[in-house]
């Protein structure tokens, strides 16, 4: 089997599969197991549709309109109408990777055989993904309850050959034209199918999974920059000793301390050059780096546990059970996902804050233990990295505002039928901004710390630090010297961190980092 193909069965999928489809354009196939389960659940729905008794989502209206029984001649129209009316998003277009994750995760639930969707519809969903067709989804429209309704509706609309979508070239065109160009026949929805395509936590879950992957890389990167800052400040690595962290056995704390210790191995700067201003201990932003980053690591681990549970779930309402029942439920409520999205934003904001404090210490001649003011070449004539720290501080400030939880808010909707909602989509959207900011903040600390190390003339940095400095300079981030146009350097440092190259530069020396 091609390594770039993801096969969906009935038992969920993995975070790695989601990322492969969303970011790396992996192909999607339905297993025979999934096709069989889809057909079996559809037989149950067809049997119920033929009966005179009303069944929610099959032969009734939706939400607050569920009390109306819908006759058979209007049911196809009912399913089309729910998609059209719920595709009510507004604002900027959501990123391609988010929409692909959203589509794939909805297909994952459909393939579970608990939704009553026909195999043909599921296959068409896979066809859209494989053709690189990405429906236009808007920033606003989901309350994170009854699922990500508006975003999923825009995807279902494209499946019907309506609305707008972007092709593989990124150009937005009418969805019908794109489907025709790729030989895909639009689906004609039948009983329950419109509802089944809309009713899930797929958008917020997709963003959670990608956020976890990004944050894992960033936390390792921040351990590296913390070690570089400690080295530039002539700090002590004794606080990173394993036995000190073993007596407070938070797993993430031990991992971060070990990462820092390995980066600093063989340093000629740490703990030996404090005679000019003796220090009993380093400042909190240096000494407590493993405790703060470690707490964030443990938060990520918990968020991954929630994501994995959600990946194993079939989120729909009503749901088709193996014994033939079709039951209403509340599994579409986004609270479990929303909480961890908010929790991650809090942890990331605190990591950004401690990174900024170390940067500020590197630039302050009263606290940097012999480094020039603002790491400038000729302080007074040159301003050095003064304003780079301003930029970093602005990013941290925004992260603190974004750390206010979305999940504590709720605005009732659907004539009070949906009277408590999760706001999980909003939590996910602000977390993506938070992660962008954190990447830039880590990049600024990297820029300052590497310059600080280079300014310690006559002292030999750790081999891992030397590898970082070599790699970052080759990436176009210049070293110490007179003032120059700073934005390109910061952009290059950002790209370096964002692509994972900081970790790649270190690991040949340190071995794999946590």
From TrEMBL:
Post-translational changes noted in the entry: Contains an active site 4-methylidene-imidazol-5-one (MIO), which is formed autocatalytically by cyclization and dehydration of residues Cys-Ser-Gly.
Highest taxon of the lineage: Bacteria
GO biological process, any: protein homotetramerization
Name under which the protein is recorded: Histidine ammonia-lyase
Record GO terms (molecular function): histidine ammonia-lyase activity; phenylalanine ammonia-lyase activity
Gene for this chain: hutH
Catalytic activity annotation: L-histidine = trans-urocanate + NH4(+)
Lineage, uppermost ranks: Bacteria, Bacillati, Actinomycetota, Actinomycetes, Kitasatosporales
Annotated compartments: Cytoplasm
Cross-link 5-imidazolinone (Ala-Gly), where in sequence: 145-147
Pathway where this protein functions: Amino-acid degradation; L-histidine degradation into L-glutamate; N-formimidoyl-L-glutamate from L-histidine: step 1/3
């Amino acid at each position: 089997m091609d390594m770039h193909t993801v096969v969906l069965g009935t038992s969920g999928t993995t975070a790695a599969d989601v990322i492969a489809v969303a970011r790396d354009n992996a192909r999607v196939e339905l297993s025979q197991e999934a096709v069989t389960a889809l057909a079996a659940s559809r037989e149950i729905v067809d049997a119920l549709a033929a009966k005179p008794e009303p069944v929610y989502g099959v032969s009734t209206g939706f939400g607050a309109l569920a009390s109306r029984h819908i006759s058979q001649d209007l049911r196809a129209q009912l399913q089309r109408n729910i998609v059209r009316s719920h595709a009510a998003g507004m604002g900027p277009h959501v990123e391609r990777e988010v929409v692909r994750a959203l589509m794939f995760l909805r297909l994952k639930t459909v393939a579970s055989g608990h939704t009553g969707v026909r195999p043909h519809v599921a296959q068409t969903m896979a066809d859209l993904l494989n053709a690189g067709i990405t429906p236009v989804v808007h920033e606003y429209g989901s309350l994170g309850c009854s699922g990500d309704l508006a975003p999923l509706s825009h995807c279902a609309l494209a499946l019907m050959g309506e609305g707008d979508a972007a092709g593989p070239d990124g150009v937005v065109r009418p969805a019908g034209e794109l489907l025709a160009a790729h030989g895909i026949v639009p689906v004609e929805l039948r009983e329950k199918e419109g509802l089944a395509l809309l009713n899930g936590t797929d958008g917020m879950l997709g963003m959670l999974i990608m956020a976890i992957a990004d944050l894992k890389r960033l936390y390792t990167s921040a351990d590296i920059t913390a070690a570089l800052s400690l080295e530039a400040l002539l700090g002590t690595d004794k606080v990173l000793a394993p036995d000190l962290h073993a007596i407070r056995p938070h797993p993430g704390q031990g991992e971060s301390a070990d990462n820092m210790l390995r980066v600093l191995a063989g340093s000629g700067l740490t703990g030996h050059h404090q005679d000019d201003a003796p220090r009993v201990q380093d400042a909190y932003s240096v000494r407590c780096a493993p405790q703060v980053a470690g707490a964030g690591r443990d938060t990520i681990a918990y968020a991954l546990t929630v994501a994995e549970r959600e990946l194993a779930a079939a989120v729909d309402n009503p749901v088709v059970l193996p014994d033939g029942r079709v039951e209403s439920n509340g599994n579409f409520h986004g609270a479990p996902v929303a909480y961890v999205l908010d929790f991650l934003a809090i942890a990331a904001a605190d990591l950004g804050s401690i990174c900024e404090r170390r940067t500020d210490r590197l630039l302050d001649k009263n606290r940097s233990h012999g480094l020039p003011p603002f790491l400038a070449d000729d302080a007074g004539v040159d301003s050095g990295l003064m304003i780079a720290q301003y930029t970093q501080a602005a990013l941290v400030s925004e992260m603190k505002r974004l750390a206010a939880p979305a999940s504590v808010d709720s605005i009732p909707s659907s004539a009070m039928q949906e009277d408590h909602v999760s706001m999980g989509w909003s939590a996910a959207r602000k977390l993506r901004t938070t992660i962008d900011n954190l990447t830039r903040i880590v990049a600024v600390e990297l820029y300052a710390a590497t310059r600080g190390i280079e300014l310690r003339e006559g002292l030999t940095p750790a081999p891992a630090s030397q590898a970082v400095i070599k790699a970052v300079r080759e990436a176009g981030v210049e070293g110490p010297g007179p003032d120059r146009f700073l934005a390109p350097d910061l952009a290059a440092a950002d790209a370096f961190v964002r692509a994972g190259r900081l970790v790649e530069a270190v690991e040949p020396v340190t071995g794999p980092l946590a």
